[in-house]
């Protein structure tokens, strides 16, 4: 396999990786070879990692952030915060002298203040807000957590102090405000666009407070950002940041080797040894807070029958999937949570491979002669599933042995996600990278009832008992009490099998030697703030 990969790589390098007219573009500044185009330039509107990678930490800031090394909460646009004893009131003191981007299409007359925080939060939480329905009116991450019901009020205390009141305590609330989706927008820019009758440009021609500002975009080709001079944390060393959109993993590596890219997204497992052996490249790794899984669309028969779902889980040897798709870059999943989570349940057992029992369950469900189904395989590479098509082919083989015929379906990424949201799939191979370190970030977005309409509950599964348990878990700060609720939730998942957890993968990042300041965030996402590049 390695020999064939070298031949392909050499062919790509010899043939030349750059498209005509783009060589000068990719020679300047810092160049990141990404795997796809963002759906939007406002991460409030989309839950995909591709959109978050392209926008959240480059264009914007949040009230608070995560330290990428420790995972602890640290100040950002809020210089400090406090929480009332009853856990219902959060007060944020805002940072002064923070500038918004100045561009040919917007020249701010003031710096960041409390009005921007109120605008940014109320846009997604208040259905009567003038910007709520702009760009579709869907805010999938916040909807999946039910935050519209959790937040009671957001108020301006003074120009640099904001209070958020909750209807009931939520121990994950601060962590939610530090996620890639909780970005702060410019209220002044939004008002300008509304007066010009072009409010949709807020999400496609962005303005933020982040280290880089928007300059140009060509779908499926590149994004160009310019340095934000006057950035509150200090100017970046690079004049510009280029996203060279390169869906093919082997081509991204070829561009890294030739120097056309400084950093690449999601190197494939077959490429890791090649990267490690080159003295001009650096490979970094870190355990990821993620889970790759196979979800069943429980809104469709026969997947609405838990016996059928259990049969499908038993019919597949997950160890083979792990070995053939992840090699040595992941650990087997026993549940939603990776072993690094404080709420990981050591008593959880992996479902064994048992095709005989699978056939019995199918017979109990009234399926004696098998049936046909689809497995949707996502078309892009992610750490939690680096090759969904290969995994689907392996599952196809196993299911044939119990009389189930499988058709594998894939589409271009934006089409794939749109059709998934419409519920057209029978089952799907996909996954989740945590946006923060709280276990709630797995349980609610992936399988709560509210996450169905947001699109992050790929199983379209809803259990009132499960929802009650995970909601009770976040209403206390006592981790031992929360753990007991999550253990009960795990028992429901093991019995009902809305999805089959497969793997928790390591995160890898490859870049050229001479870059400093690159850090792997355990929660996914990438930031180029404070990254420096040696020049010849």
UniProtKB/TrEMBL annotation:
Residues 72-452 form the Solute-binding protein family domain. One of its GO terms (biological process) is dipeptide transport. One of its GO terms (molecular function) is peptide transmembrane transporter activity. Pfam families: SBP_bac_5. The keyword Signal applies. NCBIfam families: PRK15109.1 (NF011689). This is Peptide ABC transporter substrate-binding protein. It comes from the Bacteria. GO terms for cellular component: ATP-binding cassette (ABC) transporter complex; outer membrane-bounded periplasmic space. Belongs to the bacterial solute-binding protein 5 family. Keywords: Signal. InterPro entries: Peptide/Ni-bd, SBP_5, SBP_5_dom. The lineage of its organism: Bacteria, Pseudomonadati, Pseudomonadota, Gammaproteobacteria, Alteromonadales.
């Amino acid at each position: 396999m390695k020999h064939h990969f070298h031949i392909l790589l050499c062919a790509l390098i010899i043939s030349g990786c750059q498209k005509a007219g783009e060589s000068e573009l990719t020679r300047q500044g810092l160049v990141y070879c990404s795997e796809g185009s963002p759906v939007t330039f406002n991460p409030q509107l989309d839950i995909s990692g591709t959109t978050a990678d392209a926008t959240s930490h480059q264009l914007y800031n949040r009230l608070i952030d995560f330290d990428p090394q420790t995972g602890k909460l640290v100040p950002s646009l809020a210089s400090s915060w406090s929480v009332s004893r009853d856990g219902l009131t959060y007060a944020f003191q805002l940072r002064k002298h923070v500038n918004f981007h100045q561009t040919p299409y917007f020249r701010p007359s003031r710096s960041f203040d409390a009005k921007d925080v109120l605008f940014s939060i109320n846009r997604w939480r208040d259905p009567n807000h003038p910007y709520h329905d702009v760009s579709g009116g869907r805010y999938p991450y916040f909807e999946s957590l039910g935050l519209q019901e959790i937040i009671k009020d957001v108020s301006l205390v003074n120009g640099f102090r904001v209070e958020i009141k909750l209807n009931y305590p939520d121990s994950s609330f601060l962590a939610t405000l530090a996620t890639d989706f909780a970005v702060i927008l410019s209220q002044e820019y939004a008002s300008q666009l509304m007066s010009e009758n072009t409010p949709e440009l807020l999400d496609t021609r962005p303005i933020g407070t982040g280290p880089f500002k928007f300059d140009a975009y060509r779908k499926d080709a590149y994004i160009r950002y310019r340095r934000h001079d006057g950035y509150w944390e200090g100017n970046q060393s690079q004049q510009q940041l280029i996203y060279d959109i390169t869906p093919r993993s082997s081509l991204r590596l070829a561009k890294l080797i030739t120097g056309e890219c400084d950093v690449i997204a999601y190197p494939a497992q077959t490429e890791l040894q090649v990267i490690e052996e080159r003295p001009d490249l650096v490979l970094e790794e870190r355990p990821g807070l993620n889970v790759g899984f196979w979800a069943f669309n429980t809104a469709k028969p026969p997947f609405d029958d838990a016996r059928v779902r259990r049969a499908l889980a038993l019919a597949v040897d997950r160890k083979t999937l792990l070995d053939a798709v992840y090699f040595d870059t992941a650990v087997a999943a026993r549940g939603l949570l990776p072993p690094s989570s404080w709420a990981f349940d050591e008593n959880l057992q992996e479902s064994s491979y048992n095709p005989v029992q699978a056939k019995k369950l199918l017979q109990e469900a009234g399926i004696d002669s098998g049936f046909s189904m689809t497995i949707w395989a996502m078309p892009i590479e992610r750490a939690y599933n680096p090759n969904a098509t290969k995994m689907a082919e392996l599952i196809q083989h196993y299911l044939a042995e119990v009389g189930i015929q499988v058709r594998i379906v894939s589409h271009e990424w934006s089409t794939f996600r749109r059709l998934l949201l419409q519920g057209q799939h029978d089952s799907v191979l996909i996954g989740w990278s945590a946006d923060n370190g709280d276990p709630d970030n797995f349980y609610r977005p992936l399988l709560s009832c509210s996450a169905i309409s947001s699109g992050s509950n790929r199983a379209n599964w809803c259990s009132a008992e499960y929802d009650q348990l995970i909601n009770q878990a976040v209403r206390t700060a006592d981790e031992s009490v929360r753990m007991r609720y999550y253990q009960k939730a795990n028992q429901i998942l093991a019995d009902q099998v809305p999805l089959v957890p497969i793997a928790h993968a390591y995160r890898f990042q490859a870049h050229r030697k001479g870059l400093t300041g690159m850090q792997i965030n355990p929660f996914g996402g990438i930031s180029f703030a404070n990254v420096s590049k040696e020049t010849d």
